[in-house]
Amino acid sequence: MAAIVRDLIEHRRPGTLREIGGRVGADIGYLSRVLAFLDEQALITRSPRGELLDVAWPAVLERWATDAP
Length: 69
Prior knowledge:
This protein is mainly alpha-helical. About 60% of the residues lie in helices and about 10% in strands.
């Protein structure tokens, strides 16, 4: 999960699941679940087709800091 969070923070326009998965080496299914969670928490903005458009990176960092071991 840490690699996914880092990638989302580093890229202003993260892109599609395949693009993100390719950069971080994450399974698309796992990545999809992580993004669905972030979407439910209103931490990311997605297009109707699912592409990531924006990441509320300060809020993502706060959430990660709260949940990370």
